[in-house]
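Appendix C. Worked example: Troponin T, slow skeletal muscle
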Amino acid sequence: MLCIFLMSSCTHSPQSRANSPFSHRPMVPQLAPPKIPEGERVDFDDIHRKRMEKDFLELQTLIDVHFEQRKKEEEELIGLKERIERRRAERAEQQRVRAEKERDRQTRIAEERQRKEDEEAKKRAEDEAKKKKVLSNMGANFGGFLAKAEQKRGKRLTGREIKRKTLSERRSPLGIENLREDGLRQRAQEMWNWIYQLESEKFDLLDQMKRQKYEIVVLLNRISHAQKFKKGHGKGKVGGRWK
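Step 2, the predicted output written as structure tokens:
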């Protein structure tokens, strides 16, 4: 009964392994059935014994093939696991290298951005310092410049010039040391408006001076012409004589 059970279980195992990619058909040795000699008495015990030996040999062969196939499958499974682990380690290393490169790239970008911001801030500070210095010099020297220009003229000041002098003397200092960029822009705009007004007044004065010169020339020509006419026709004939 044990042999029949083992044979039935082993006969089903090749069918179950047929679906496996590593299954192979077991090689069972072909044994010739025992021949019954003619004219002799049949020994059923011997026939049964030989049949049992044949079945046992087939069973042993199937068991050996099964364990050999199982050993191969286990070795292939171990190799597959090793390849999977190796591939996983390679992917982890690649991801680590990519992450490190990305961190380095982001660090370089941040350093370059910070360097540009520092350079721009330094340049703005230098420009503001230059503007403050220029405006301070303009505020300190503009009044003296007007006074020197008036002294060089060496003539009597007009009402408009007196007004300009008074405004220059009364104008308070700029006080731009603590101003921000918006305050400096506003103060520069005020200075520009003031200079524009002065230039307009200068243009008006020059135009007025030109007109006055023209009127003086016209008057001089008229006087000269009148004097010439007077010299030619100034004497009249009185009592038969020219006087």
